[in-house]
Amino acid sequence: MSRFIVLEGVEGAGKSTQVRLLAAWLTAAGVPHVCAREPGGTPVGEAIRGVLLEARELDVPAATELFLMLGARAAFVRDVVRPALARGEVVIADRFDFSTFAYQGYGRGIPLEDVRRLNEVATGGLRPDAYLVLDVPVDEGARRQEAEGKAPDRIEAAGRGFLERVRTGYLELTAQDGRAHGVDGRGEAELVHDRVRALLESLFPETFAT
Ligand code: T5A
After folding, report:
1. How many whole angstroms separate alpha carbon 76 and alpha carbon 80?
2. Is 144 in the pocket of ligand 1 (CB under 6 A)?
């Protein structure tokens, strides 16, 4: 049965790692699925990603950042998410609209009601079945990225205060939304995977119970 599952969290929380582990589990279980990241997931989305993240020299106003994120999302919803759900597949997304609420809303300070309203235009009202919000302290995420040797992208380079606001945003968004579930992102990746799996099995047994 089709499901739209989103992994969210601060930088280095382990989203991409958990998407990979989930995909391997679904493949082994014979569950048809697609995985994609945001911003990105489509040719136009990946082009927007290049502007948003890699062009560190650009002075990008917060509203421009918001509109570009949403521009990428509109293509992602139309070309990746809706077709996969229509085929009866599971969609695993590495970030979706909680990222916009947390980064452009809480982080950049754009009023949340404006972000939500504009996001609605990009998604056409499509909502995930569940958000799994991986939580790690900002320092832990930064340590992991450093260990990986990954240079901070334009948004990560906004500084620690910004990332702390983003984390606070995630915690508040999770507490306010019945579809959002906090997952402790600390500990070995396999241990976090066990938590993610147990949660999905309890939420959607018809799709995820093996
Ligand atoms: N953005 C995005 C917005 O501002 N608004 C939006 O609307 C959207 C959609 C995207 C950027 O765009 C912003 C947010 C971001 O700044 P990104 O590269 O897609 O950038 O996202 P990042 O969070 O920066 O990606 P990371 O790869 O850094 O973080 P992940 O995916 O959370 O972490 P992951 O899995 O790659 O792991 C990072 C490192 O930690 C290790 C991994 O092996 C890797 O080396 N690791 C662990 N180490 C120890 N214990 C564990 N449990 C571990 N899990 C992973």
Report:
1. 5
2. yes
